[in-house]
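Following up on my earlier thread - several people asked me to post the actual chain instead of describing it. Fair enough. Here it is, all 303 residues.
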Amino acid sequence: MAKAKETEEKKVATEEVEQAAVVEETTEQPNADKTTKAGKHSAKAQKEQAEAEAKEARKEAKAEADETPKPKAKPHVKRYAKNYKAAREAIDREKAYELKEAIELIQKISKIKFDGSIELHVRLGIDPRQSDQIVRTSTVLPAGTGKTVRVAVIANDKAAAAAKEAGADLVDAEKILADVAKGKFDFDTLLATPDQMANLGKHAKALGPKGLMPSPKSGTVTADPAAAIAEIKKGRVELKNDANAIVHTVIGKQSFKADDLVSNAQAALDAITKAKPSGAKGTYIVSVFIAGAMTPAVRLNHK
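Reply from S.P.:
Thanks for posting it. Predicted structure:
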C-alpha cells in the first residue's frame, strides 16, 4: 500500500511540473514576440536601404562622368626669350658643323654680358651600368680652362710642404677632413698621396657624389702632388661619363680666341677616344655638341 501511495504522489508531482512549464511558456510568449528579427519596415532596415540606394546613385553618376568626353588639352608650345630665339634661328639644326666653324658661331650668337664658359658634350655608345664600360680619364687643355681652381692636398708633412710651394690652396689634412665631415668643401680638386687614402675611406660617401674623391684613374691619387698641381693650375680637366653615357667638359671661356678653343676641344676629344673601354662595342662616339652659356647646342662633325 505504501509503495502504491508513493507512486501516485510522484505522478501528481510530475503533472504539476508540466502544468507549471505550460503556464511559464504562455507567460513569456509576448516577450518573445518583442525580440524577433527586425522586419523590412524597421528603422534599421530603412537606413540600410537608403545607404544602398545612395551607393548605387554614386556609381551611376561616376559612370556618366567617365562617359563624358574630356576637353582636349592644348598642345604645349615652348616659348623662348628674344635673344635665345634669334640664336636658335641662326643654327642649322640639320647640319653637322666643323669644330672651328661651330665655335665661331657660338661666339657670334652669344648675347650674354659676362665671360661665360663654353662646353663640349660627347655622347658615347657605352652602357654606364657595366663596370667594364666606364670612361674616366684626364687631360691638360693647351690653352687652359680660364677658371681659378682651388686645390686641396692630403699628404705627409714633406709632400704637403712641396705642394704648398707648387701652389696648393689647402694642405692642412686634419682641417680639410674635419671640414669635409661637416659638409664644407672649400676646394675644387682634392689630391692625396697613396699612403693617405685610408684616411679618406670614411669620407667617400661625402666626396664621391660631388666628384671630389681622389682616384688613380683621374690622376688625383699621386705620389708627387706638386707635379699634379702644376698640371691642374695649367688647365687639367677630368673627363668621365655620367649616368646617360655623356661626357661633359669645359673647354674655355667666351673670351678665348677661336683657335685656342679648337685646340682645347681637340685635346678633350683625343683623350676621350684614347680612353675607350675594352667592353665598349659598336660605335664609340655617337654624337658631339658644343654650347656656350645660355646658347643652344651646335652639332659637330666628329667623323
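The domain at 94-146+235-303 is CATH 3.30.190.20 (Ribulose 1,5 Bisphosphate Carboxylase/Oxygenase). That should answer part of your original question.
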